[in-house]
Amino acid sequence: MENPGKIKKLKPGTKRVDEFAFQVGKTEPFIDSFKAFLKASFTLLVACECLICGRPVSDANCDGGLRICETCWSEIEHKPSPVPYRIKNLEVFYYGFYEERLRDLVLAFKFGKHPGLSKVLAKFLMKVVHEHGIDYDFVTFVPATRTSRRKRGFDHMALVAREFSKVAGKEVFKLLKTARETDQLLANDRREAVRGKFVIEELIPDRIYTVLDSKTVLLIDDVLTSGNTMEECLRILKKGFPKTRFLPLVVAVKR
Q1: What is the pTM of this model?
Q2: Phosphoribosyltransferase domain: from which residue to which, for each copy (predicted)?
Q3: Where are the domains of the chain?
């Protein structure tokens, strides 16, 4: 089956990566994230304080480097939103609003260099799936830019996708990559700022196109703000995979 969406073909002699490299958590290298995990483990040995509020955390809650106190946990763990969030032409499934402790959790994960929190976010996304009885076949994610990966030491949504895959028992594929950074000069027009930011991963094996044909794929991200990033990702994915249904799913919605 030919690649839809005019996907770039490899030049003769170009080495093709192992097709399973697109299944996050199997053969794709996570060198940067491994370094971040080592740093988080060292921090855990030095002190055991809540990553959200800074209060002392019991030894039981320190297991796995999650380090969330009971008070914060009681505030962030709840029943997911019973109805999807509607913005623009999108209907997005989400766990909660980007406020208070849930916002602090996301920030601690992304900018506090605590990759272990990816397990918590994956758990919340799974609760959304169960709440709505979402029927799906595979998972993909909104990728971070090269600059963001360099600053954080990992692609945050790739980590969440990997943890989600473990819990859900579903394969996760890296279908998108960033072609450029967000255009800060167009910050007032967020739609134009992300236009052309994402492209289909050009080294996707042909068999993946066949596998995804007529399937439903979850597109996961951490926070939905204006909806422009999610809208752009869906636009690109639908061009590359016209027969695949994509469902947007996020941890939090900013209102």
Answers
A1: 0.80
A2: 207-243
A3: 4-10+18-28+80-253
Torsion angle, alpha carbons of 15, 199, 173, 227, to 10: 170
How far the first Cα of the chain sits from its last, in Å, is 42
Residue 139 has φ and ψ, to the nearest 5°, of -135, 140
Task: Select from 3.40.50, 3.40.1350, 2.40.10, 1.10.287 the CATH code of 4-10+18-28+80-253.
Answer: 3.40.50
Angstrom distance (rounded) from CA 122 to CA 208: 24
Say how many residues make up the chain.
255
| pLDDT, position 48 | 82
How does residue 35 score in pLDDT terms, banded at 50, 70 and 90?
A: low
> Rounded to the nearest 5 degrees, what angle is found at the Cα of 142, between the Cα atoms of 178 and 31?
75
